[in-house]
Amino acid sequence: MTFRSENFVKMFTDMMSEGFIVIDNKGKIQVYNRKAKEIFGISNSLQIKHQRGKIEAGDIVIIGDNAIGQDDGNLQGKSLKAIGIKNTNIKEGDSIIALGTYKEEGVIDPILKHLKKDHNEELLELETNIKEVYIKARIDFVNRIISIQVKDNVYKMPYINAIGHMVVLDGKTLEMKFYQGHGYTARGESINDLLKGREYMAKGEGTESLDVIGKDIFEIHKSDYMIQQFYNVAKGENITYVDKFEEINGYPTMCTLLPVEENGKRIGAALKVEDISQIKKIIAERDHAIRELEKAENQLLDERALNKAFPNFIGNSKEIEHVKRMALKAAKTNSNILILGESGTGKSILAKAIHENSKYKDKPFVHVNCGAIPSTLLESELFGYEKGAFTGARSEGKKGFFELADGGTLFLDEIGEIPQSLQVKLLEAIQEKSFYRIGGTERITVNIRIISATNKNLEKEMQRGRFREDLYYRINVFPIWIPALRERRQDILSLVDFLLPKICQDLATKIKGISTEAMNLLLSYDWPGNIRELENILERAVNLAEGNNILSKHITIEDKKAQEKANEIKDLKSYLEDQEKKVIVNTLSYFKGDKKKVMEALNISKTTFYEKLKKYNIK
Question: Which of 107, 344, 535, 593 is the most exposed place for a label (fewest CB within 10 A)?
Answer without folding.
Answer: 593
